[in-house]
Amino acid sequence: MGEPPLLLDPGRWGSLVGLAGGTVFIASYSSALGAAASTIAWVAGLAGVAAALFRHYVRPVALGPLVRPGPRALATYAGCVAGELVLIALGSRALAAVHHGELRPALIAAVVGAHFIPFAWAFRERVFSHLGGAVTAIGAAGLVAGALGVPRAAEGAAVAAGLVMIAVLVLHAQGRFAAPRTSAWREAGPGRR
To answer: How far is CA 87 from CA 95, 97, 128, 130, in A?
Structure first.
């Protein structure tokens, strides 16, 4: 279909959701890390958001051709979002039941990251595999570190996950994930079925 119009590009709009999500992680948990760390996280996060917006709308690069998502892609999206909400609710209850409710920020980061991974296949966008893999790993590391007694590990992981989300989306805005895909990648995606 070719490159979509700048203001209608779902790759750019989707990026805005991720940038907002990364900022929410920083806003929600950075204060637990102390004033200096919180300030550094805010400055880095807002600089990343500004850089992504600049590359998306002021000095845009091609992000790849528009591919209309098929029914399987849309079902994958809906299932992942619903699964994310269910896993966060169940995981939060499980953590509270074992008296580790303080690990919830890392749980949320791990689940948010995991929900992105199937999008790489569903929407044939490589950015989601990088985004999902990194955020999931950071959240899981925060869960393990927190369970081992590292103070504020969960909050630190959530803030780090937010910063990584923003950083990956800056790379996306620069067109770093827009490389042509192989025919096998295209044929495997649900958008063509």
So the answer is: 12, 15, 19, 21
